[in-house]
Amino acid sequence: MTETTFTLVAEHMSLEQIIDAAEGLIQLANHPTRPKTAPPLPVDEIQALLERAIELNDWQIIEDDDDRNEQQKLIDNATDSDTVLVRDPTGTPELQEIGILELLQRYPCRGSEARWSPDDAIALLETKARWLDAALESWEADGEAIANESDLIEAKAVVLVVPEQTGQPLRTDLLDVLIPVES
Question: CA-CA 20 to 30 A from 144: which of 45, 46, 83, 164?
Fold first, then answer.
């Protein structure tokens, strides 16, 4: 199924409904009473849709179970190389921590729905990597000295901000955070 088809289906059905419908279509395609003259169902495409819906549903469950406050998400993400923070006023919660691949699926940087360019996406990831490296270097190089003085390391959290207006481009914010040094 194309990305456009998935987006259109997702606008009108919940992930659970999409999963149920895809499972039902796969069962129907393989059912022994299905007439041989019936048009074939695109089972491979339906299976791909099912897998994508299950994956997104799993991520949604993880996000719903995330009870960290916003400040804790900023602190945790400043030293996490696998996820990106996204502030999207249409999401629940508004500040979400998502994987890089999911980021590019939710917020494509190509095509008619793109609100940022591939160069912008690369710049976001490079900025995240640069600040992550700086935080880890501070932690390793000055950890003992800093721990003895204040028990905190200064760092930056990189956040992709989705404006409320649909046509507005995405932007990157840098937020100051203090990371506690673990003894």
Answer: 83
Q: Kindly report the CA angle at 123 between 119 and 124, in degrees rounded to 5? A: 120
Domain positions in the chain are: 1-65, 69-183
* pLDDT above 60 (res 109): yes
Helix ranges (H only) for 13-117 are 15-30, 43-65, 70-77, 100-106
Q: Is the peptide bond before 108 cis (omega within 30 degrees of 0)?
A: no
Do 71 and 157 meet the contact criterion of CB atoms below 8 Å apart? no
Joined tokens for residue 41: 């169902």
Longest Cα pair distance anywhere in the chain, in angstroms?
78
Where do the DSSP E strands lie in the chain? 83-87, 95-99, 152-161, 171-180
